[in-house]
Amino acid sequence: MSETKSPLPRQVADAYVDDLIALDPVTGTYLGVKESSTRLPDYSPAGQEALARLARATLARLDEAERQPGADSDVERRCGRLLRERLTAELAVHEADEHLRAVGNMHTPGHAVRDVFTVTPQQTEEDWAAIAERLRAVPGALAGYRESIRLGLDRKLFAAPRPTATYIEQLTEWTDTDGSGRGWFEDFAAAGPDALRAELDEAARAATAALAELRDWLRDVYAPAIEGAPDTVGRERYAHWSRYFNGTDLDLDEAYGYGWAEFHRLLGEMRREAEKILPGAGTPWVALAHLDEHGRHIEGVEEVREWLQGLMDQAVADLDGTHFELAERVRRVESRIAPPGGAAAPYYTAPSEDFSRPGRTWLPTMGQTRFPVYDLVSTWYHEGVPGHHLQLAQWAHVAENLSRYQATIGGVSANAEGWALYAERLMDELGYLKGPEERIGYLDAQMMRAVRVIVDIGMHLELEIPADSPFHPGERWTPELAQEFFRAHSSRPADFVESEVTRYLTIPGQAIGYKLGERAWLLGREKARERHGDAFDLKAWHMAALSQGSLGLDDLVDELARL
């Protein structure tokens, strides 16, 4: 009788994905698993603990797998590093009971329940029958979520008041999108087939009623109970979240200093570009305000969607074969307009595992119909090509050479956001930001990422503003000062800035990963260049780097330097 071989790290990781999908059908839908389309996760405390048990059991299996012959190969080692780091970070957040405070303007179970419908298959009557069943699951999913945050309330584990208020406003919009009493779910279900009309409408109304019930409870019970609680999380909680989003235990004071160094460097560059646009402007933001009125614009929502599609298509055509080698299915990416009622920032959704649903960029219009070009070009290099799309679609493309886990759910936020910011810089290095409008827009976006490091760390840790700061030197950060500082050093409108600061209060430690991740990618490239000397091949390095899956920042630099 032959012995059963013990699994290696990649097999352990892929078994974890299968087990996770069974517990979390939202993840299954994003991966393109059709069987997930009818269900929603259990967001109750019991459901959250089931996820934690799975993580602990997987780590125990990984311990055994890493002792097996062959576990020290490059592919197994990278997968094991990632799986151990990710599950350890996720468990630290869980064991700190952060799931009992999951209230804010993004990344809550309420957002997940709504957003998953936008990526649920909608092509056939069978698809819509699954959607109807998933709509019927909304009340139960939201009830479980409410059970979790009610337990947090009982234990005095409070969410931040400001993000809570914003979340209540979002839920109000989702339950009545246009003032007619018709909610987001009803609008969504209206696209379904006539044969299922009564079933879809009934399920959609019940889903909207569940949203309204959650909104009313948050407004009438939760918000009054947390009044006076801090909006910031403090150093200990911040350390858990920064590890979760960055994949390493950061020296937060060093990172804060780096943010300020980048702020001063970028400010000098922006001033030089501003002189080309509006001589004597005084500050770069006067020049940017001038561009808001007199710079190049795209008029119309559908027109801007088409323009962004063209920008990405051109980038694919130019970069494929020169700086990247792209498979045909990776070349496809779609530009979309984001559904109303979400955060103000653009975003990207990855393709399904089989590419039947392509990667998509999403532009929130926030009611606008006129869009300045300077604010779009580098942002779409970030969200689309060569940014998020090339990395995440390439992971899906090479999934068989990695593991399903590495190619999909094992992503580290700072790795992905760092690559996307590196992609913006790469396009600048390659000369794609040809005029001062495009270049000051890129620098403004870079400045926003430096400001994020400063204010996200600064306000949550209540750090002192340095003496050489042009803004309130010697004072300690508060959310109010963070918003004022952001507004003074950004071209973004006031509602965007307010949404951004609320975002940092909702998901502490995530926003710093853009700049810190970019630093890791640049350091890894430099180390690889030093290692190879004149033989360094940037195209080959890009493809090897994009084909190794995700890693936390310290592990990322180490692995990039080996390529």
UniProtKB/TrEMBL annotation:
InterPro entries from the UniProt entry: DUF885
A Pfam family per the record: DUF885
Database matches in PANTHER family: DUF885 DOMAIN-CONTAINING PROTEIN, GLR0591 PROTEIN
Protein name per its UniProtKB record: DUF885 domain-containing protein
